[in-house]
Amino acid sequence: MLDVLSHRTYRHLFLAQVIALIGTGLATVALGLLAYELAGEKAGAVLGTALAIKMIAYVGVAPIAAAFAERVPRRAMLVSLDLVRAAVALCLPFVSEIWQVYVLIFVLQSASAAFTPTFQATIPDVLPDEKGYTRALSLSRLAYDLESLLSPMLAALLLTVINFHNLFGGTAIGFLASAALVLSVSIPSPKPTAPRGIYDRTTRGLRIYLATPRLRGLLAISLAVAAGGALVIVNTVVFVQGRFGLAQSDTALALAAFGAGSMVVALVLPRLLERLSDRPVMLAGAGLLIVGTAFSALIDAYLWLLPLWFVMGAGYYLAQTPSGRLLRRSSSAEDRPALFAAQFALSHACWLLTYPLAGWAGAAFGLPTASLLLAAIAAGGVLIAVKVWPAIDPEAIPHRHSDLPEDHPHLIARRASPAGQHVHAFIVDDQHPIWPGLR
């Protein structure tokens, strides 16, 4: 898996991602401490609102940012967004009111909502070979999982010698280092084939996404991932400290078990995807999440929670990681940023639904009821995915263009029959607005 790092451009971009992730992890710890300093026992409400603002920014800003991204060189855009995030991080230690936290979090997460899909859309252009791209996806997911484990540990170590306000400085340094690494390489910036209006550019990714059957299936699987993931992220502390009466360190260990499940699968997934297609792998991962989420309603001991969270971490990784491959298969280079932004927005809309549901249902009706409710949502997502994503999903699909004249350049280039039928790798675009068989 590590041999993909021999590619200089990808190596620099991957290091930029890792450093920025560490900085973000430090900011997450520091933000919790800042909320407690400003709000005391109401810090949970402040953090909950901040997370809601984060999701709203992700859902609302990503498609709009993608509409303008195609007009700006990718490298310039990524560097500018890193600089914005660094500036916000430097402002956070000086806030004195809760509303200031909310404003800065919105700006920070809006920049991240523009940065992440643009960054993700760049990797397929840097690594056009599918095997290399698959390994890059696994490596990227591994970086996310390691960050969730290592950043709190690094923050705890730093807090023994510095004030928590200084952690925001570490965040700023991370974003500045990320910007420097992006600047050190040349990044391809595909241009749109034709000028488009702002509405067309803003909604283009969503329209392509929802018109592609495999991506409809991806959205349904994203709902299942969000349902299982929300149970772990929101309610682990409730299981460990509320239900079992254990310590904070035991909560950290349970979350580490979830991350460990993901990391183990990361080591084998690239080879697995060389033998199996994306659909059965992702459905199997979502199935593990359904079973794990439902079974969590029955556990009554911490020692059962650890292996269960490990299995759910494995399912989470299997269901989520191949999504980049589907997006790459389903888009042209110029539409790729818009499609990644659509996935970013729609998947986070799923989290915006399941995050509060996991918390409110657990508080109002108890953990078993919350677990079963989330398992039912995950199962519904998988059933929809099976329905809308055909088991036979070839790239090249026979189709005809009854609306194009016989001498149209597209038909001539593809050597279409007199009736306008031909076969090629099918993606939704201006000449192919509707998927074959769905007319």
Helix-strand layout with pairing:
Layout: H1 8-39, H2 43-69, H3 74-91, H4 98-126, H5 130-158, H6 165-183, H7 198-211, H8 213-243, H9 248-275, H10 278-295, H11 302-320, H12 323-329, H13 336-365, H14 367-388, E1 396-400, H15 409-413, E2 421-425
Antiparallel strand pairs: 1-2
Helix pairs in contact: 1-2, 1-4, 1-5, 1-6, 2-4, 2-7, 2-13, 3-4, 3-6, 4-13, 5-9, 7-13, 8-9, 8-10, 8-11, 8-13, 8-14, 9-11, 10-11, 10-14, 13-14
List key phrases describing it.
439 residues; 2% strand; two-stranded antiparallel sheet; mainly alpha
Overall description:
- The protein is mainly α.
- 75% of the residues lie in helices and 2% in strands.
- It contains 15 helices and 2 strands.
- It has helices at residues 8-39, 43-69, 74-91, 98-126, 130-158, 165-183, 198-211, 213-243, 248-275, 278-295, 302-320, 323-329, 336-365, 367-388, 409-413; strands spanning 396-400, 421-425.
- The protein has a two-stranded antiparallel ribbon with strand order 1-2.
- Helix 8 (213-243) packs antiparallel against helix 9 and helix 9 (248-275) runs parallel beside helix 11 (302-320).
- The longest helix is centred in the N-terminal third of the chain and has 32 residues, at 8-39.
- The mean pLDDT is 81.
